[in-house]
Amino acid sequence: MSQTLQRIRELVARREVRVSEHGYDELADEDIFLDEILAGVAEAAVVEDYPTYHKGPCVLVLQRDERGRPIHVLWGIAKNTSSPAVVVTAYRPGADRWSDDLMRRKP
Question: Domain span at residue 87?
Answer without folding.
Answer: 3-91
